[in-house]
Amino acid sequence: MTGPLIQISALEKTFVRRPVLQSLDVDIASDDRIALIGSNGAGKTTLIRCLLGHYRHKGDILLAGEKVSTHNRSMLEAIAFVPQLPPPLKMPVADLIKFSCASGKADKDKIWDIADKLGLELAILMSIPFNRLSGGQKQKLLISIALARPAKLFIFDEPSANLDPAARSAFLDLLAQHKDRAMLIASHRLEEIASLVNRVIEMDQGKIVLDDRISDRLKEGDRRLCTLKLAVPSEALSKTLSEWDFSIASNGLSASGQVAGGDMIRFLSTLSRYGGLLSDISFENLGED
Ligand SMILES: Nc1ncnc2c1ncn2[C@@H]1O[C@H](COP(=O)(O)OP(=O)(O)OP(=O)(O)O)[C@@H](O)[C@H]1O
User: Is 41 in the pocket of ligand 1 (CB under 6 A)?
Assistant: First the structure.
């Protein structure tokens, strides 16, 4: 395939006349592994739900160059999705697995294999209704089903929120084994998924405020000049930026400094805590030290 896997243009979503996504333009390539970050309410889940065709919206979403409509079958086949909040399904685990294999083309043996790696004892859960599982068990099962599907894009919305440390580590190993597929991972733990992703998109108040392709080839010693614009001066952010040796304008509304390739994720993770204060972030490659 030549063009992007997914093209989103002029996407707008309004809830009760309140704009939640504002004129978003973003492409997803088949080798993108994206960390989608941003503070609570930034619009990450809404963007994902629009992409999945769950919501009516303004603007276009194209899959492999073809325009898709709400509840489009080809989009649902192309994407394997694990939601932030599990659906309230009453069907027993066995039926959910059967359904996922039939309609989502999931591989049954792979579901069992992945569940085992995540520490989920499927054999003793088969007759239990899905909504009676614990939060972590639900998440493990949905992850197992998603990763067992022949999807082109995996979307995980806060995937490790309910996982215990052992399952979290097993989950990250599993994702590393699926790096040949496109991924979009909405997370508040950027550092946790840092080694998996090659692009970071930050949202704030329904807009994309940062879209940074951290090339897989960005070397430890590569330096990048970062220029920031602030919507309002902030003592806390200025203090943090001073710790990164940034120079800050006297009016407190802009700052710039250098960040090494090896520190990039830690830096972006720090910035994401100040999402609402940043109006623009840009990077310029300066080459190696
Ligand atoms: N179904 C809905 N009806 C009305 N408002 C909604 C609905 N879903 C989301 N919103 C609003 O849209 C905004 C964006 O919500 P969204 O869930 O997309 O944020 P998010 O970035 O995923 O946040 P979080 O990190 O907390 O999961 C919020 O202000 C939320 O209140």
Answer: yes
Q: Pairing between strand 33-37 and 222-230?
A: unpaired
**Which of 16, 17, 20, 24 has most ligand 1 atoms within 8 Å of its beta carbon, as the pocket-test mutant?**
20
Q: Are residues 167 and 270 in the same domain?
A: no
Q: How far apart are CA 61 and CA 233, in angstroms?
A: 36
Domain count, the chain: 2
pLDDT digits (tens, 9 = 90+) for 19-68: 999 999 999 999 999 999 988 889 999 999 999 988 999 999 998 888 87
Contact 230, 220 (CB under 8 A): no
pLDDT tens digits, 103-160: 889 999 999 999 999 999 999 999 999 999 999 999 999 999 999 999 999 999 998 8
Q: Whose CA is nearest to atom 27 of ligand 1?
A: 40
- End-of-domain residue from the set 208, 237, 271: 208
* End-of-domain residue from the set 189, 208, 227: 208
Residue nearest to atom 4 of ligand 1 (CA): 15
Ligand 1 pocket check for 40: Cβ under 6 Å: yes
> Which residue spans within 163-206 are E strands per DSSP?
182-186, 199-204
DSSP 131: G
ipTM rounded to 2 decimals? 0.97
Query: What are the respective helix, strand and coil percentages of the chain, to the nearest 5?
Result: 35, 30, 35
* Residues whose CB is less than 8 angstroms from the CB of residue 259 and which lie 6 or more positions away in sequence, other chains included: 223, 224, 226, 244, 267, 283
pLDDT tens, position by position, 210-257: 888 876 556 667 888 999 988 889 999 999 999 999 999 999 899 999
